[in-house]
Amino acid sequence: MAWTKEYQREYLRKWRAKNPEKTKEQSRQDNKTYRIKHRLKIRILQKTRRAKNPEKTSKQNKKDLKTFRIKNRNNPIYKMQQNMRSAMSAALAGKRKSQSTMNIIGCTVEELFEHLESCLSWESWMTRENYGKNGWDVDHIIAISNWSKNCPLQFALCWDKSNLQPMEHIANIKKGVG
Questions:
Q1: Cβ distance 155 to 148 under 8 Å?
Q2: Contact 131, 125 (CB under 8 A)
Q3: Which of 98, 115, 144, 174 has a 20 to 30 Å separation from 138 between CA atoms?
Q4: Which 8-state DSSP code applies to residue 120?
Q5: What's the pTM value of the predicted model, to 2 decimals?
């Protein structure tokens, strides 16, 4: 059988139907490669699209914010992960991370909660649901300011779970001020 365009299309369609996971992974990899290669072009297109459709952009931003707030309120694991990302980004002051947040911390969010729950500073009133404002925070035993953000090893040690402990929210604020 000759490899005509029609035959090749039909062959690929059947192969994709038989191998959905491989197809999905290949598509993901192709998209990632394209995004890296054409980063500037994509940024310009997105900026143009937002400028042309400000009401649509505003509507989508409101929808995204509402979804974020609901997830943040109802899902302690999501909330912990978002807070760790934000705190790490703030500590880096505009620099990019070399790895994902949870890789730097050295565990999953679930394992981080388990670590915090096993700390000596964990109190009976502390729960996953009251994590955050008006509850308890994740505190750095050795403060972030004592580590160099320019040294990847020190940055990783600063954010390692062994340097994290639970602390009552108000006490953590007072500790940071004093």
A1: yes
A2: no
A3: 98
A4: T
A5: 0.61
